[in-house]
Every structure is written in structure tokens, then in C-alpha cells.
Amino acid sequence: MNSATVRNLLVRGMLAGLAAGVLALVVAYLLGEPNVDKAISFEEAHSHEHEMEVVSRSLQSTAGLATGVLVYGVAFGGIAALAYCFALGRVGRFSPRATALLLSGCALLAVYVVPFLKYPANPPSVGNADTIGKRTTLYFLMMLLSVLLAVAATLLGKRLAPGLGTWWATVVAVAAFAVVIGLAYEFLPAVNEVPKDFPATLLWRFRLSALAIQAVLWTGFGLLFGELAERLLNPKPAAATSGRTVPASH
Amino acid sequence: MAQTVAQPTATTPVVPATLPLKAIAPWAVFFGILMLVLLYFVGAEQGATSVLNGTDVHEWVHDGRHLLGFPCH
């Protein structure tokens, strides 16, 4: 029975991740691709060697982009659903739907925003090919550190809650997370490989569009998965009736 | 009318029952690893490290890799 619930939540998480991936793909195509194209034009204008095209630009910006974003959505949808199984009923007095949105918000911060503030997304032509190994290691390390610290902060908040009350336990846990992340920002090596003359506005717009993709992905996932989880775990049509009777009583 | 409608069950949020860790663990291990492998192929294959030869995977997910924030090249 419980194992079946985990399986059902996992399947719904992957489907919600796929659907949220479609929304994020629209944003990536409309907001992100123009910046990728401009960055590639800059690269071609400034490099002497011409690379042979393995996959054409028109495929990279459509089918290739879709593969990347959708697989990313499904994979993180699955992982988030598994994390949700742990979080459900353990993080506080939240309904299934509220737990899903809370988890998605935390995931957006821990999986993307916190690593992004130290190692932001870079368009083509930003980044030295010789340091790809180091940059990939640092990025995944930052992501792993951020997720583990977010889990640790949650456990800390839970432990402090009986003594300090929920409000102050949350404040202390978030502050502890911020301090340790601040130390990591300070002591992990910086990466700055923006070429001379690369347009600052283009870099800014590219990074904003990368952030928008993630915001849409995780918000969409939280709302969709929350709805599916609520229907799975609270199958009675309570939402419709209580939603109308509660305001009437005030 | 209002008193009859405002049942405690309607206003108190229902705290969902927890799922036992034993029920989650097998799914978390198997699908967790599978999902991480998918992320590896989108985010890092044929960049920093390569399992497959060539640059096809890298080139195919090139734009996604840049826009999803992974270091690409």
C-alpha cells in the first residue's frame, strides 16, 4: 500500500516534470535562444578557426534544446517526487498541495539559484575550453553542497522547533544555511572567463533568461505536482466544498 | 447556518500521514540513480568527462546545456 503510494507519487512527479519542462521549453525558446544566437555570432566574429558543425544550429535550437530541457524536467521531477515522499507530513502542518509548492520553492533555491549566484550560467563564447573539467566539478560540487545544506537546515529547524517554536526555528535554520553558503562562496575558487569586449547587456540578458527558465520549471512543477498529489492523497472532493464554506463562516 | 458549516475538519489543515522510510528507500535508490544518470547526460557527458566517444551528445544538447546553467565548453 505505502510502496504503491511512493510509486504513484514518483510517476506523477515525472509527468509533472515533463509538463513543467514543456512550459520551460517555451520560455527557453522564446527568451533564451535569441541570446544564444547573439553569443554565437560574437564567437564567430572573434575566432579565427571555424569548427565543423556536427549538429546544425536549427536542430540544436529546437529538437536538441527540447531534449535537454524535457529530460532535465523529467529527471528533476522524479527526484523531487522522491524528496516529496520523505517530506510529506514531516516538515510541518502543510497539506499535500502546499508541501509540493514549498518543496519546489526550496528546490529552485537549493538546486539552481544558490549555485547560480556563485557560478552563473554562461552563453557560448564565455568560458575557456581548457578549464571545462574544473568548472564542471565546481558547479556540481556547489549544487551538491547547496542541496545537502538545505536538507541539513530542514533537519536542524525540525529539531529546534519544539524549543524555539516554528517561527524562530525556521529563522535560525535559514540563517545557518545562509552563513555556511556564504563561507562556501568565499572559499571556493572564482571563475571569470568572460572574453574582453563581450557585451555586458547580452551576458545579463542570457543569465536572466536562464533564471526565468528555472523559475517557470519549478513553479510549474510545484503547482502541477501539488494538484496531482492532492488528488491522489485526498481523493474526496473536500477542496471544492471546504473552499466555499470556510469564507462563508467568517 | 454558519455554525453548522464551519466544522473543525473544514478549517483545520489535514496533516498528511507520513510514508515509512522502508517503503521509500528502494524507489529512492533505484530511480534516484536513474534520474542522476539522465542529468549527467544532459549536463556533463562529452564535456568534462566522456562515457561515449565523439561529440554527438554534447552537440545535440548544446543549447539546453547553456540555458540550463551547466558549464558547456
UniProtKB/TrEMBL annotation, chain A:
Keywords for the protein's UniProt record, in alphabetical order: Membrane, Transmembrane, Transmembrane helix
Superkingdom of the organism of origin: Bacteria
Pfam families, per the entry: CbtA
Transmembrane segments: 9-31, 63-86, 98-117, 137-156, 168-188, 208-226
UniProt cross-references to InterPro entries, sorted A to Z: CbtA_put
Protein name: Cobalt transporter
Species this chain originates from: Streptomyces cellostaticus
Source organism phylogeny: Bacteria, Bacillati, Actinomycetota, Actinomycetes, Kitasatosporales
TrEMBL record, chain B:
Transmembrane region(s): 24-42
Naturally occurring in which organism (per UniProt): Streptomyces cellostaticus
Protein name as annotated: Cobalt transporter
Keywords (A to Z) from UniProt: Membrane, Transmembrane, Transmembrane helix
Membrane found in the keyword field: yes
